[in-house]
Amino acid sequence: MRARNMAATTVLALLASGLVAGIAVADDDTVPSKDDVHDARTAVRAQLDDVAAVRARLVVANQRLQQSAVAAAQAAEAFNGARWRADQARDAATEAQAGVTAAEADVERQRQAYSDAVVSSYEMSPELTALAGVLDSDGIDTVLQRTETMRNATDAMSGNYDEFRASAVVAQVARDRADRALDAAKQAEQDALDARQEAQRAADAAAADAQSIAAEKGALIARLADLQHVSVDLARRRQSGLEARAARAAAAAAAAEQAQEQEQAQPPAPTGTPTPTQEPTQQPTEQPTEQPSEQPSEAPAPPPAATPAPKSGAQAAIAFARAQIGEPYQWGAAGPDEWDCSGLTAGAWGAGGTYLPHYSVAQYEQSTPISASQLQPGDLVFWGSSSDPGSIYHVALYIGGGRIIQAPRTGRPVEEVSMYYWTAPNFFARP
């Protein structure tokens, strides 16, 4: 009898909450049958399964949103890389053309020198022939002198010709190099244009995906609200809380992993050395009673001077980046009012007195790689899709305490967040 009453109470409670609908009830309204109880339990399980399925679809939607953002970031940094390579190629072409100009000027000088030698040889030839040297000589010394002069003139003319030919070869090599450099610059500029178009397509696709996924998530949350018999607003807040809790858990796990790496990186304390807590326990009981009573009567020490604003180095970089918080993200931008990820870090370290290219991969390559356990304020943290630094697609400025300043992506302005806000970074470097 007790079991039947409990079953009846369960089904009535389910019916009252609206979780069970369309279940056939026995003729006796107060005593559900075993089939009624079974059907009620089955409905509850099915409904819980529906909730789990909706939440799983929300997880997938969030993953798609993240993948879309990564693809957009990769395309934006690919454009920065192509633009950087184009600048380098154009500089190389300019340098090569300067080499051509110098080589051609040298060829002209050698041509003139050779022409002068030929003319001089022709003008002196009547006097330098061996026969003239014998017929007109006043003696053997004159013959020898004229013969030596003739030999020297011939050698000089040959030497001038050789230098002219060498200069001509050098000039031709310089022209070939300049042509190749110019072709490379044109190709690099075309690559940069293509990368720019691809970055725009990726940004547009990410924006469209975000809008589509937002609509999909809205429908899923409305379905959750219906299944849980709560308002849509409450369901949305519940879902946001679950996602925030998952993000905090992931951040805590990543931070714990980094702390463990730092602990492992520290050398163990040498055994047999006295601990630093042994001596301080004796001194405070011996001397503090006399001196403190005498010195406070003297004039107090002047207050410390105000700390000047940092002018260089890591602190200046951090101060610059912090001043940009709230300014919008724009791929390819490097200030003064819009930024992308590598544009912000380049601008920050530029304020600190260190040049960094506007390209995350090049920033890593031109800095000193470090481990996560070695991070200090002002260092750079990078995200890459593999263990190859060439896969880096995002960079941020580390400010200490596990936090960063970054220009994240379209729709999110420059911000200060945990460096585990997204996924854990996998490259670290010090400019």
From TrEMBL:
The record ties this protein, via InterPro entries, to:
NLP_P60_dom, Papain-like_cys_pep_sf, PG_Endopeptidase_C40
Task: Report the Pfam families cross-referenced here.
Answer: NLPC_P60
Q: Where is there biased composition of kind Low complexity? A: 253-266, 274-298
Its protein name is NlpC/P60 family protein
UniProt-listed PROSITE patterns: NLPC_P60 (PS51935)
> Which keywords describe this protein according to UniProt?
Coiled coil, Hydrolase, Protease, Signal, Thiol protease
Q: Where is this region: Disordered?
A: 253-315
* Entry superkingdom: Bacteria
Q: Which residues form a coiled coil?
A: 171-205
Q: What species does this protein belong to?
A: Nocardioides hankookensis
Write the signal peptide boundaries.
Answer: 1-26
On whether Hydrolase is a keyword of this UniProt record, the answer is: yes
Q: Gene3D superfamilies annotated for this entry?
A: endopeptidase domain like (from Nostoc punctiforme) (3.90.1720.10)
* Family from the record: Belongs to the peptidase C40 family.
* Keyword Mitochondrion part of the UniProt annotation: no
Domain NlpC/P60 span(s) in chain numbering: 311-431
